[in-house]
Hints:
This is Phosphoribulokinase. Helix 2 packs across helix 3. The mean pLDDT is 88. With 53 residues, this protein is mainly α. The protein is globular and about 25 Å long.
Amino acid sequence: MEPTLARHGYRLKDMSEQFDAKAVEIRAMFSNQLEPKRTAEIRERMLAAGLPI
């Protein structure tokens, strides 16, 4: 998923700032290693912003 977002112009640093999450959390989310509650929070923010996830 991370390469797809990068193609659309979303870098890890940009996503961490925009969605109020640490870069480590976003990486963990992409590799399915982040706790489910935090994953849901970040995912909701991404979907609300219109990210192609």
